Structure to design on (423 residues):
């Protein structure tokens, strides 16, 4: 077996494969982390890819950071060798039942809240997958339910992956740099229900066209979810309450995107065995995760909001429309997406920055400032903001032109706003 990628998921897959009796080789273009794996006894090849590395290989396990057009995967396909994602490989060794969550935005929130609701209900639940813990690393744990966050990268290479309960959140075009086309991205998302049947349950968003279109193809029992009402047979918002069946729960937020996320979590957790009281306690403790519409501070009547996690236009626009008067900081590295929809009706000034600045600006007719460096973007937003405005970091793009990830970008924003870095 050959594992492609020596980062967190690749290391977990390699260890599991060896524990299950496979002869394992590892390939990564980077030397980072290779020395440690060699000390564990693995054969690791780094540097330029050579298709000769596929000789004698009967299966490839690939990491989510490796796009399907990368030479190792192109050559693997040409050789007729089976390819599994780490998600598929790990889930195939799980003894505990598992549920899964996918979608363009909100996956992590729904996964974390579902896990919390089950745990509060006395169910031994663990979160894994795209949320940060590889499925392969929790196979031998004593779990009653595994809650899996499944990205399109991970779902692209599944075979037998079969959650008993699944959720498809909003589905907007994303990651075209990885998948190549919007259709390929949608097909990868659809694989979450590929092996589900009439005994399984699939929650979907009735307010989202992409989610509706995919759910219509599923053989599973479908459960509608809405942030704008309570659909028949499903879950949604009614005033300040979240309703699912005969159960009514106080909503801890009126932000529409989080209302939908919480409704999904209630459905998935309920179907997986959570109790009403466990769900109620978890909802009462809900707080958004870091870099998700997080208030950094209010200065001279201006609110500064960090939504660095908004790495696609759909998420950025949704964030902006949650506030009445917005100075929007958007840009970074485009993932091959149409950025013309980032600027919504509540944006009164756009600050576009980074590699994608021109693409962000091209779709807007509001007053704007265009800069290259992120620090300059934050400074420009502060200068144009007026009391009552929200300065919102919702980039709509990846961070990798200037940062190691959205977390570092959000931390830098907070430090600049609070004056914790030298100018």
């Amino acid at each position: 077996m050959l594992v492609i990628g020596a980062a967190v998921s690749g290391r977990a897959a390699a260890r599991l494969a060896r524990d299950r009796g496979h002869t394992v080789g590892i390939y990564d273009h980077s030397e980072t982390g290779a020395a440690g794996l060699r000390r564990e006894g693995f054969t690791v090849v780094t540097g330029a890819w050579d298709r000769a590395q596929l000789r004698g290989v009967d299966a490839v396990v690939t990491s989510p950071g490796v796009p399907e057009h990368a030479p190792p995967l192109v050559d693997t396909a040409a050789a007729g060798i089976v390819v599994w994602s780490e998600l598929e490989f790990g889930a195939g060794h799980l003894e505990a039942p598992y549920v899964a969550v996918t979608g363009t935005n909100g996956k992590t929130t729904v996964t974390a809240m579902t896990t919390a609701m089950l745990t509060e209900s006395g169910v031994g639940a663990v979160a894994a997958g795209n949320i940060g813990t590889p499925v392969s690393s929790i196979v031998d744990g004593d779990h009653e339910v595994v809650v899996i966050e499944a990205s399109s990268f991970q779902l692209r290479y599944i075979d037998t992956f079969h959650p008993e309960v699944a959720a498809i959140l909003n589905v907007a075009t994303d990651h075209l740099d990885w998948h190549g086309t919007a259709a390929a991205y949608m097909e990868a998302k659809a694989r979450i229900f590929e092996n589900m049947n009439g005994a399984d349950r699939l929650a979907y968003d009735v307010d989202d066209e992409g989610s509706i279109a995919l759910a219509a193809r599923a053989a599973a029992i479908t459960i509608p979810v809405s942030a704008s009402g309570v659909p028949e047979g499903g879950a949604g918002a009614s005033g300040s309450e979240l309703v699912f069946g005969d159960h009514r729960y106080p909503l801890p937020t009126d932000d529409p995107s989080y209302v939908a996320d919480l409704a999904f979590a209630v459905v998935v957790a309920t179907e997986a065995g959570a109790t009403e009281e466990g769900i109620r306690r978890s909802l009462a403790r809900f707080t958004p995760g870091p870099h998700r519409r997080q208030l950094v501070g209010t200065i001279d009547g201006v609110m500064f909001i960090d939504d660095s996690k908004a790495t696609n236009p759909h998420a950025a626009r949704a964030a902006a429309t949650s506030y009445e008067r917005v100075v929007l900081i958007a840009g970074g590295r485009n993932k091959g997406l149409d950025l013309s929809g980032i600027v919504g009706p509540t944006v009164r000034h756009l600050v576009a920055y980074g590699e994608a600045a021109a693409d962000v600006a091209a779709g807007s007719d509001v007053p704007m400032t265009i800069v290259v460096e992120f620090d300059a973007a934050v400074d420009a937003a502060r200068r144009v903001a007026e009391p009552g405005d929200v300065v919102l970091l919702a980039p709509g793009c990846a961070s990798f032109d200037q940062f190691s990830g959205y977390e570092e970008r959000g931390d830098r924003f907070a430090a600049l706003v609070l004056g914790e870095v030298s100018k």
